[in-house]
Amino acid sequence: MFGYSEHTSLSGGQARRAAHIGIDRAHGLIRTWDASAANAHDGARLPQLISKQNTGSGVWADTAYRSKKNEAFLERGMFKSNIHQRRKPRRPLPEHIARANAKRSAIRSAVEHVFAGQSRRRRPNGVNHRMGLFIRTIGIGRARIKIGMANLAYNFQRLAWLEGRGVPA
Q1: What is the pLDDT at residue 11?
Q2: Check whether domain 4-165 has CATH 3.30.420, yes or no
Q3: Which of 28, 125, 148, 162 has its C-alpha lying 20 to 30 A from 34's C-alpha?
Q4: Does 49 score more than 70 pLDDT?
Q5: Is the dihedral of CA 106, 107, 112, 118 positive or negative?
Q6: Tens digits of per-residue pLDDT, 59-94?
Q7: CA-CA distance, 77 to 55, in Å (whole number)?
Q8: 144 — phi, psi (to 5°)?
């Protein structure tokens, strides 16, 4: 299980949104998700992303999700925290923590692939890449629907890819 957020910036003075997802490590399918205003603290969304039905015990996330409250929540749920560690203010990150964070990043990169598949990117030839998700809505309710539909479409695409490979989902 992974937890992570992607902030979507909008032009025209509109509010920014953040999408938070929890994915299955083995297959890369989105299992849980949430959307919030970008100014809301990312770490507060972790309990909504963690599923008790998840068979994996590890939780990987960036430093925004690290807090005493979240660590206690994970410990109560018997999950193993693999959340990145922060550096102390005005101090360099110790080498052993930097190496541990690099190992966590290698695993957590699967979440980045989900967001890369959904984001709007232009190729040099001017063609949009993949889903071209661009959130431009008024109100968090509409943004949640748009993000939810994009997550569903991503899961359909991912499932078709997995079945084409002959991997049991």
Answers
A1: 42
A2: yes
A3: 162
A4: yes
A5: positive
A6: 888 787 888 998 898 888 888 888 888 888 888 888
A7: 12
A8: -60, -40
| 66 contacts 4 by C-beta, under 8 angstroms | no
C-alpha of 74 from chain center: 17
Under DSSP, the state recorded for 139 is S
Q: Report how far residue 63's alpha carbon sits from residue 49's, in angstroms, rounded to the nearest whole number.
A: 16
Half-sphere exposure of 103 (CA within 13 A, CB side): 6
The pLDDT tens digits of the residues spanning 100-157 come to: 888 888 777 777 777 777 765 555 555 555 555 666 777 788 888 888 888 898 899 8
Residue type, 27: H
- Nearest CA to 105 among 152, 155, 63, 136? 63
Q: Where are the domains of the chain?
A: 4-165
CB half-sphere exposure, 65, CA atoms < 13 A: 25
| C-alpha distance from residue 159 to each of 78, 104, 114, 169 (Å) | 29, 25, 13, 7
Q: Quick check: 33 pLDDT over 80?
A: yes
